[in-house]
Amino acid sequence: xxxxxxxxxxxxxxxxxxxxxxxxxxxxxxxxxxxxxxxxxxxxxxxxxxxxxxxxxxxxxxxxxxxxxxxxxxxxxxxxxxxxxxxxxxxxxxxxxxxxxxxxxxxxxxxxxxxxxxxxxxxxxxxxxxxxxxxxxxxxxxxxxxxxxxxxxxxxxxxxxxxxxxxxxxxxxxxxxxxxxxxxxxxxxxxxxxxxxxxxxxxxxxxxxxxxxxxxxxxxxxxxxxxxxxxxxxxxxxxxxxxxxxxxxxxxxxxxxxxxxxxxxxxxxxxxxxxxxxxxxxxxxxxxxxxxxxxxxxxxxxxxxxxxxxxxxxxxxxxxxxxxxxxxxxxxxxxxxxxxxxxxxxxxxxxxxxxxxxxxxxxxxxxxxxxxxxxxxxxxxxxxxxxxxxxxxxxxxxxxxxxxxxxxxxxxxxxxxxxxxxxxxxxxxxxxxxxxxxxxxxxxxxxxxxxxxxxxxxxxxxxxxxxxxxxxxxxxxxxxxxxxxxxxxxxxxxxxxxxxxxxxxxxxxxxxxxxxxxxxxxxxxxxxxxxxxx
Length: 534
Ligand code: PEP
Ligand code: MG
Known about the structure:
Number of domains: 3
CATH superfamily of the largest domain: Phosphoenolpyruvate-binding domains
Oligomer: single chain
Helix content: 40-55%
Distance between the termini: 19 Å
Bound molecules: phosphoenolpyruvate, magnesium ion
Structural class: alpha/beta
């Protein structure tokens, strides 16, 4: 089944990702200069990776530069030469030598195993070079195109240019995949799970919100897509068709401008604490919080206290080597061992609030019990912070949401971690993408439970995980009673348009149909069936 992994609508000609080169079945005799040709191919690959690094963003440039170093590793060149000396032709020697490294990395633990994709990229480029085949990777047809691929490697996604790549269609890669996250941050519509074969130049219409790919769209379909694009272009607060408000907020990781959001639903403060050997001082934090709060005067801003641990390592805040960091002393639990970290952060926030006159809401991550919520609320209030909430991202907290809501002013569902802990599925593990799908009925049951507890308590419940940016889920959340959705700012227009297409009664109907489904695919189908095609 095709699913939308990054919203937006685009139409354009297909250009397929270059495929990894296959070695011919017959192995020829090596030529005289095969050793030199093989090392030259590795050097050319290194140069190409460096060229790409020179115009990629910082994170991508780091990955590409590291790959170039691997391609240029003298030990690799030596083993290629050895193999050629033993009668193995150039392309086969490169393939075999890199294969040996690949096996070593694949068995050396999860961090190094991730580098296997980078090695595969080096192998494919060098082998294509030696066999005179087209380079694998992003095509360069000379005009904007819809990129079609089985799957995208990080080295490809790092180079996606929204001015050239109109949309992305892949066969594999779920809603939490690398491709999804990057496409969303660049505002490129993307659909995955598409298995039909397409040829270069064929025109397709890609609807990332609805998860549809229309091959050779009719004039009527193109007009409908233009109408939809016009609706997406509208601005203003989030509303259903009959005016029921659902605040559309942005997730930020620093003083990022969010002109088109009604505020910030999740300010991840970790960036202040990562990559350093000790915590920032109160004054340092105060200055940063001031710069975040100031432009948000008159709008909501929810600041999350430090969420150290697991996928956000902060060695000085977390507790040595834990066997299971995701289940360890992380999130709010960090403050049990380091109460000063939380006090300093809340003090800095209170100072920034009085400096700017902007009153932030504050919430704690990874809260498991009502007692923890009560403790956090008391601490935050002792610093003069009036609006206090917690994230619901542990199933225990979702199940006892009513008790938690009696201690705090609001809750926000962190569906990324809530999926991870509900399904016992590491959120970073792409092999578990199906379990981490936000349309999983068990996850949506927990969201429904929390929304109902919030309604009964008369307090707001928002969603701030990746699920909040799925336009097809927006009416479901509204129907369940969720009062705000916080997401990457690039996807707000699509979510706004999706909400505006339904009345609150429609949303309730869609939510009921979705909750009655037994699988994520059925849930999506139930929602799509209720959503007008257009
Ligand atoms: C979440 O877990 O859904 C969330 C929003 O927090 P983070 O992704 O920062 O853990
Ligand atoms: Mg989380």
